[in-house]
Design goal:
eight-stranded parallel barrel; 16 strands; binds flavin mononucleotide; four-stranded antiparallel beta sheet; 19% strand; 31% helix
């Protein structure tokens, strides 16, 4: 049998395979250089950037371990758009695969400005982060409202010819409704999930363990919740869905794919195994070969209820 076809397209971004790295885990790629063959993956999504640099949440605990996962409240610390384009992007592009920039803003116009500035760069696509639970302004405030999400997507659509991915929050009643609103506004794909809003408390001091009070939960506990949301969204939209939520191995990734994801992103798992994405990719290839599946797309959304 010839090697299975694993190619995926997101708008004009062609990926040789469906495995991506999720935003925020990989920074701008600097710290992970040399730890794995990241160029073999379909795309690398870099840490969210905003127009101005941000210091993020106050020092103290920005991450906390929980029984089945991890809470984080980084607060979108980033170098700002200008430094990103000047100092970070050129090195990231050397990875030799698609580089996706992730952007956020406190106002719709800030998203559009970031997208405009990235239009002439080498990024293959732009992810709009309307789902960060750890900032006071912007972030999830857009993503919990279908109308506001669509406004951001439309403004970014008008500002750039690059493919747009809308990153959705699971902290809503109707995630499929938000996905459809983004699709109608011009998003080329949707990615989900960002983290689940959560809090952990030290019972002696009666203070939250995170300095910011609350944060976002990732970790094995969220995977079934994420798979279900991918399923719901894939039923509702025509554009490709990118699934994520603690993908450690190929079987986890295949759950998302069979639920309806055309591509998957590996996030928190990179902390334990920097080569997790490559391991997931090899496992997906093995699965396709051992099940005589010629094209990955043959099993996308193939779950039978
Ligand atoms: C430490 C940390 C930082 C993150 N930073 C970002 C970010 O800047 N932008 C973003 O869209 N998502 C961010 N995320 C969310 C991840 O991209 C991903 O959506 C989420 O963690 C679920 O996937 P995972 O469980 O595989 O990590 C962050 C997650 C973690 C754990």
């Amino acid at each position: 049998m010839t090697a299975p076809d694993t190619a995926v397209s997101i708008g004009s971004m062609s990926m040789k395979n469906p495995v991506m790295i999720a935003s925020g885990i990989f920074g701008y790629g600097d710290e992970f250089r040399g730890l794995a063959e990241y160029g073999e993956l379909g795309a690398l999504v870099l840490k969210t950037v905003t127009r101005q640099p941000r210091e993020g949440n106050p020092p103290g605990h920005r991450t906390v371990e929980t029984p089945a996962g991890m809470l984080n409240a980084i607060g979108l610390e980033n170098v700002g758009l200008e430094a990103f384009v000047r100092d970070k992007l050129p090195a990231a592009l050397e990875y030799g695969t698609n580089i996706v920039a992730s952007i956020a803003g406190e106002a719709v116009e800030e998203f559009a400005e970031c997208a405009r500035a990235l239009d002439g760069t080498g990024v293959a696509a732009i992810e709009i982060n309307i789902s960060c639970p750890n900032v006071k302004k912007g972030g999830m405030a857009f993503g919990v409202d279908a109308g506001a999400s669509a406004e951001v997507a439309a403004a970014v659509r008008a500002a750039t010819g690059k493919p747009i991915i809308a990153k959705l929050t699971p902290n809503v009643t109707d995630i499929a409704g938000v996905a459809v609103a983004c699709e109608r506004a011009g998003a080329d794909a949707v990615s989900l999930v960002n983290t689940f809003s959560a809090m952990a408390i030290d019972v002696e001091s009666r203070r939250p363990l995170l300095a910011a009070g609350s944060g976002g939960l990732s970790g094995p506990a969220i995977r079934p919740a994420a798979v279900y949301r991918v399923y719901q969204v894939a039923q509702a939209v025509e554009v490709p869905v990118i699934g994520m939520g603690v993908i450690w191995n190929a079987s986890d990734a295949l759950e998302f794919i069979i639920a309806g994801a055309s591509a998957v992103a590996v996030g928190t798992a990179l902390y334990a195994d920097p080569a997790a994405g490559n391991r997931v990719l090899n496992g997906i290839r093995d699965y396709l070969e051992s099940h005589s599946i010629a094209r990955l797309s043959d099993i996308v959304g193939s779950v039978e209820l």
